[in-house]
Design brief:
The protein is an alpha/beta fold. The protein is 51% helix and 10% strand. It folds into two domains: 232 residues, Rossmann fold; 90 residues, Tyrosyl-Transfer RNA Synthetase (Orthogonal Bundle), CATH 1.10.240.10.
């Protein structure tokens, strides 16, 4: 079996999630952790959020009434897609359920150095990205939304941190890269630790909800915290990791790098339906074989659409799974059902997004 590949600046491939606990030293999301949470999100309930670093310490801070924050962001290279939606919904969840202040970074310096997108173009893309997350439910009153290129505290931190980490250390974490990507990583460390500055009533426990491809940034950041103790009193950032939502071709995680296998939140509903009808499924070769052997939902991207995104009710999701396994549910019918749900979601979301464009523009240009 192919080994797990983790690349924050390229394509990551996870073939065995169980190996990551020893490979990366992560901790599992356990029943004990879930019992401490009043209203677990579907990502937690369904173990889409499956691993963490110091999430228990973040929970302890919340339980003790100490200040907490959540930090995430987006690289403005394209429109929001369903993979972007996962992280967005997670930070919205922690804002609502934990009353955590959200820090949302527009990583325009990274898109400049990694994707050669000029800052003025990145700003235009970012306005749409911010409108998307507002439409999904982020409360701007309890959020700090900023562009890396405008937040000098982040770049100041990046310069300070770069003095404490060697080139060999960066190569061990990220492999051989051009220096711009190494400095993009230091800038991300500045983003992650920004909420702990005194300007934001820090230090405090900060949670970073991310995909596994971004884990090197967390490891770098935790190393930095240890090495700057003489200057700052940062807590090591906590992280909660989710499984990848696969592309529609079933091969890799959904990524803006391959737009033909992606469901974007600005897709025309009918286009989205056609994409879903053509996605990889877990069906057998014939209807007769499907009825006899049952389907394989664990291989099916259409089922993942329900699991990750579009079926909130756990009992309904269980019914879809069991009907598929028993051969009572055929792929064509199932795809049509999910495609209709997705199309309706997109219609509503796009109307909300349009109403949020002016607010998004003001938030980024103030």
């Amino acid at each position: 079996m192919e080994e797990n590949i983790i690349d924050p600046f390229g394509t990551s491939i996870i073939t065995d999630y169980s190996k990551l606990f020893t490979q990366l030293g992560l901790q599992p999301i356990t029943e004990d952790i879930l019992r401490r949470i009043k209203n677990p999100s579907r990502y937690l309930r369904r173990r889409i959020d499956f691993a963490h670093q110091d999430f228990d310490k973040f929970l302890a801070s919340f339980e003790e009434g100490r200040p907490i924050a959540v930090i995430s962001g987006i690289k403005p290279t394209n429109e929001f897609h369903l993979g972007s939606k996962v992280t967005a919904e997670k930070i919205i969840y922690f804002q609502k359920e934990f009353e955590a202040k959200v820090f949302y970074c527009i990583a325009d310096l990274e898109s400049l150095v990694d994707n050669q997108i000029p800052l003025n173009e990145a700003e235009k893309i970012a306005i749409g990205n911010v409108a998307d997350i507002l439409a999904l439910g982020l409360d701007p009153k309890n959020a700090y939304i900023y562009r890396q290129s405008e937040e000098k505290r982040v770049t100041n931190l990046a310069y300070l941190f770069s003095r404490r980490i060697t080139l060999s250390h960066m190569k061990n974490l990220y492999g051989e890269r051009h220096l711009g990507l190494y400095f993009a990583a230091f800038t991300q460390a500045g983003d992650i630790l920004l909420p702990q500055l005194e300007d934001f009533d820090g230090p405090k426990n900060v949670l970073v909800p991310i995909g596994l491809d971004q884990s090197p940034h967390i490891f770098l950041c935790r190393d930095i915290v240890e090495r700057v103790k003489d200057v700052f009193h940062f807590f090591p950032p906590s992280a909660i990791y989710h499984k990848f939502f696969r592309a529609l071709d079933g091969e890799t995680k959904m990524s803006k790098r391959d737009p033909m296998s992606v469901l974007f939140l600005n897709d025309e509903p009918e286009l989205a339906k056609r994409k879903i009808i053509n996605c990889v499924d877990g069906g057998r070769k014939t209807v007769k074989e499907q009825r006899r052997l049952g389907g394989e939902p664990e291989k099916c991207v259409n089922y993942e659409l329900a699991l990750f995104h579009f079926v909130e009710d756990d009992n309904k999701l269980k019914k879809i799974y069991e009907e598929c396994k028993a051969g009572k549910r055929l792929c064509g019918e199932c795809k049509e059902e999910i495609a209709d749900i997705v199309a309706e979601f997109l219609k509503k979301h796009q109307k909300k997004r349009e109403k949020m464009m002016d607010m998004a523009r003001k938030l980024l240009q103030k």
